[in-house]
Specification:
flat; 74% helix; 0% strand; mainly alpha
């Protein structure tokens, strides 16, 4: 490997670009597998149990919270994958990272809001962070 004076080391090391892109691909696949397999083999079986806590009068809130929280992990994997792609390319800059973070948190906010019917207040935090990141990307 040769010395690289630029702060974007992946430009100097093609192998690093390949490894970062492979990592991004693995995160994308892991996110898909996590959502699909978790829904099919874990959440469905868990929801058949009668031992879920009954919040707000039933176990519906608990089920919805577990489901959206499970899928937010997938969204986070995809957000990190996007940043790894940016790291592998010459597109790594403040604006692009802020945009990737904004998309990740806005999608998380929508998932939490819809998944909990607005009852789980994590959507407020995710929305705030997403809007701040989007604003930072635009300004």
């Amino acid at each position: 490997m040769r010395y690289c004076a630029t702060k974007f080391r992946s430009r100097c090391y093609p192998m690093m670009q390949i490894l970062l892109l492979i990592s991004a691909g693995l995160l994308g696949i892991t996110g898909l597998a996590h959502s699909y397999l978790g829904e099919r083999y874990i959440l469905i079986r868990l929801f058949k149990s009668d031992s879920l806590p009954k919040l707000f009068g039933s176990d519906d809130f608990t089920r919805r919270t577990l489901r959206f929280a499970w899928h937010i992990t997938t969204i986070a994997c995809w957000g990190f994958a996007a940043i790894l792609v940016l790291m592998a390319s010459a597109a790594l800059n403040f604006q692009n990272v802020a945009t990737a973070l904004a998309a990740t948190f806005l999608l998380s906010a929508a998932t939490a809001f819809v998944g909990s019917k607005g009852k789980h207040l994590s959507w407020v935090v995710f929305l705030f962070v997403g809007v701040v990141c989007l604003w930072a990307a635009i300004v």
